[in-house]
Design goal:
about 525 residues, alpha+beta, Arc Repressor Mutant, subunit A, 16 helices
Length: about 525
Amino acid sequence: MRTLQEVLADWEAVIGLEVHTELTTLDTKMFCNCRLSHDDAPNSNVCPVCLGLPGALPVPNRRAIQSIVMAGLATNCEIQRHSMFYRKHYFYPDMAKNFQTTQGPIAFCMHGHLDLTVSGPGARERPMRESLAADGVTPVSRAADGSYVVPIRILRIHMEEDAAKMVHIGGEEGRIAGASESLIDYNRCGTPLIELVTEPDLRTPEEARLFMEKLRQTFLALGISDCSLESGSMRCDGNVSLRRRGETGLGTKTEMKNINSFKSLHDALEYEIRRQAEVLEEGGVVYQETRHWEPGRRRTVVMRTKETADDYRLFPDPDLAPFDLSDEFIEEARERIPELPDARRERYEASFGLRRDDAAQIAGDPTVAALFEEAVTTAGEKVAPTVANVVINLLPAFGHITAAQAASVSALLAADAISFAQAREVLEAVDGTDADPERVVDERGLRQSTDSAALEPVVDEVLDRCADQVRQYRDGNTKVVGFLVGQCMKASKAAGVKGNPKLFNQLLTARLEA
């Protein structure tokens, strides 16, 4: 098969996503009072509603409705005052009543959008000559570095209930094919689940990956889900078709089902785009079907022919009255929305002077952002870029570092009292304890001297015995200053002075340039 770049030079990929997110921060299920937990013993959190027993009547979860309204407001959706639940019929053991309660044509949230920033190597997946957004209307302009911003429209976000968990014993990669038996745990059945459906506005696997990543950050900030791709509380179906560049009609799409990682989403779409191009270029036919991504073999395989809406025999659920959301209910949901990642990133850039990438990385995780802000409050705003450096590049390697400890280490770094390598050593020593980093630095003799007068004799001694390197520097080889800094560090240690490499660099450069 040809590479993705070669394929996208001739073909345009049309991609839409369906992102399923369980509302894991709620206490109870969508239509009953059963405890919401997937860690308990199998089938211990069930009732007549979960099990679809005759005569059992569902009662909607008010907090779940509030959560989906928050999700809609955060993604610029129109909140529909009037909507209702439908029955979506299918026959499979993961739903004992043989239908799923979901929403019909009008969902709680309709017609939203998210602006997607694409940068770095991934921006090159979209051909540079392409000048229009996916909707064919909104201009897409590229920055000097090749990055661009594209609006991705959201068709709807609707509420439904999750199905039971099935465990296939003996099958390949946990699939039913080849399994000797299948086990069912109805604890998950009835879990509140929101499904976000995009318009087919995405054009590259990287755009799809970034969209799902941004959506996860948004839902985490809202506090409506843990958004764990590993445990399945957030998962994605990717739909893709191809058309020749310049054409406006849509090709036949295939669906990649239940993708549970950002990398798998990108790789599955990339493979499917390349596969479809090969089929079409050889005169074959792409069939509308559901496919499964096999990470180990790095390919998609057919699961089944894709169902149509008529196959589900949708009709309004007679056991659930239509919803009429009041203005007061919607405003109550709006007031619960915290600062969202994009706004937080912009504040970090404006208030703390953080680089855009650093600000975005911190702002995208509520837990990390809270620790960062507490550490900045302790250390002072002037130290914020150093705090960001510590949070991004050092803390992920440790289990539990408090904001106070992060602030202390950042202040030591900003004052050039310790090096980055020493900061790692200090954090390792205080990890999981309430120890003071300052005390660890002093007890281990790590504190570096920032007294220029004390270090100048060391610099003079090194320059005197390194005449060859001095001559090389003055002949234009400025890289030798690194060697000279190393010599200064060794000499200062021998003299009982803990030298500072940054200060040594400054003193050496001043001497050499004089």
